[in-house]
Amino acid sequence: xxxxxxxxxxxAPKLGDVLLVTGSESFLADRAVRxxxxxxxxxxxxxxxxxGGGSPVEVTELDASTLDVGVFAELTGPSLFAxxxxxxxRALENLPSEMVPHLIQYAGASSDDVxxxxxxxxxxxxxxxxxxxxxxxxxxxxxxxxxxxxxxQFVAGExxxxxxxxxxxxxxxLVDAVGHDLRALAGACAQLVxxxxxxxxxxxxxxxxxxxxxxxxxxxxxDAAISGRTEPAxxxxxxxxxxxxxxxxxxxxxxxxxxxxAKYSSASGGMRDADLAREVGVPPWKLKQLKQQSRGWxxxxxxxxxxxxxQADADVKGASGDAGxxxxxMVLTITRAHGRR
Length: 341
What we know:
This protein is α/β, with parallel strands linked by helices. It has helices spanning 26-46, 69-76, 100-108, 127-135, 151-161, 168-178, 182-195, 203-214, 218-226, 230-242, 247-266, 273-280, 287-294, 299-319, 323-337, and strands spanning 18-22, 58-63, 85-90, 114-120, 139-142.
């Protein structure tokens, strides 16, 4: 798993801990919460608490905005019915200001039979309580979305966690087919491993399941346009829009592709592939594609293409009443700029 996806201080969560889950990537935050509950439940079962002879682990979830002193005391104090409990407090950024001192006090002297999981969705709101909790040395999981070029690593990690294997090219093919949504990628990984019969997940298998989707992604439109292939780019664009791909995803993919190409073109010569990939901000496997694409571009052409994407992005976000026309004009401008001197 990528370090930027889940960076935890300390070992697996246990009763008596206060676990802080921060970050805007809801899929990873939800996974961290589920993992914490599972760790406590497993520990309880192994000690007999949840294996028939005792009470199961009690899980309570609530929105921090609804918390008051009485509810908090009830949820973290001694219980007559469950000796081991997990309290999941979501939207910590909405915690009432009068509850902050109580929460910080609890973090410094937490109950031995409760795991408190505090979920903050990112941003500046509620940063003060985060700083105070960190000073109290609580454990933390950071749920930060991986960068686009890290997604194949995410896929490979998911496949390994599920007991399967996949090479770098196939992992990239799955990202191209499914897109950047982590929930969708994780679901696709589970399906592929389940249906691969113990064999490696290949690009061919991915094509069988997701080939149709791969052909209409915004990245396919961008790759065709940046390569100077006008007709294929327009065909992919029309097909993508017919299949419900959001116009803003097309401009985003185009902007990302051109930024990567501009960085590649301006990078110092003689660099090792690993260093060059890091400089450009792409995985090493993409360097070959960038090398091929860069042959048809000049600084002036790139500048014109980037300007066209900026205009199209403004148009699809409201400056124009016809997003389809704005995107077609963008594609035509980019393909004409390809090879321009």
